[in-house]
Design goal:
mainly alpha
């Protein structure tokens, strides 16, 4: 439901308030991406940290990976609670920080495996760099679509909700049976998260309160990070 009549949402606020909200939100998104990149690079450059993480995450087969994903989901819930329910800006920022660290711990073992498989130079130049550029262009295009048009994307709510459970079920089954998702499966996941980003960006634009810029940044960063994950998988699949 479009909430333009609610005086407490950004969409109904004064132009200066909207501009301030968007500036704070996307500044935090940029900072989150930068901190994520620095922490991820530091983790990958520390074998004493990344190698045990890799064994922990991938050494127990599909069931172990499901436990990792379950743990990540719990941490994400905790981070969201802090970011949206924190009584102070510091508490909200702590939630964003917790989520960034969780993403780093999730990405590092995967990238470490790719580095072992393809070598560091090939991993960076042929997988991570094109995935990062593609993520930037795609996320930027989706964001521009929301902010440069007056389209009401609320119709995507049901698709996103149902799609989440379909994707979750597919991931669980494929992991348990040890079946690779394949190129077309990755493309389908990339398309789905693109729709999610479109819908979440519309939510941030129309449904969030002016004081929820930290939570908004977390939501946007989470979509970007997930898109980056799938694109890394896609370029790694093509590299094979």
């Amino acid at each position: 439901m479009n909430d333009y009549t609610n005086p407490f949402v950004v969409a109904a606020a004064a132009p200066a308030t909207r501009a301030d909200f968007y500036r704070k939100t996307y500044m935090l998104v940029a900072v989150a991406c930068a901190v994520f990149g620095l922490l991820l690079a530091g983790t990958l450059a520390t074998p004493a940290l990344v190698n045990p993480l890799t064994r922990l995450f991938f050494g127990s087969g599909g069931f172990g990976w499901l436990l990792v994903l379950g743990g990540f989901w719990l941490i994400s819930m905790f981070a969201n609670r802090l970011a949206f329910g924190g009584v102070s800006t510091g508490t909200q920022l702590a939630g964003l920080g917790v989520y960034i660290v969780a993403e780093v711990l999730l990405f590092a073992p995967m990238l470490n495996l790719l580095m072992i498989q393809f070598g560091q130079d090939a991993m960076i130049s042929e997988i991570v760099a094109p995935a990062a550029l593609s993520t930037l262009l795609l996320a930027g295009g989706l964001t521009a679509t929301v902010f440069m048009t007056k389209t009401d994307f609320s119709f995507l709510r049901a698709f996103v909700s149902i799609g989440f459970f379909v994707v979750l079920g597919a991931v669980i089954l494929l992991t348990l049976f040890g079946t690779g998702i394949g190129t077309w499966g990755i493309i389908a996941l990339t398309a789905f998260i693109s729709v999610v980003i479109l819908y979440q960006t519309w939510m941030v634009k129309t449904q969030f309160r002016p004081d929820q810029h930290v939570g908004a940044a977390l939501i946007i960063f989470s979509g970007i990070a997930t898109l980056f994950w799938y694109l890394i998988m896609l370029f790694a699949e093509r590299r094979d």
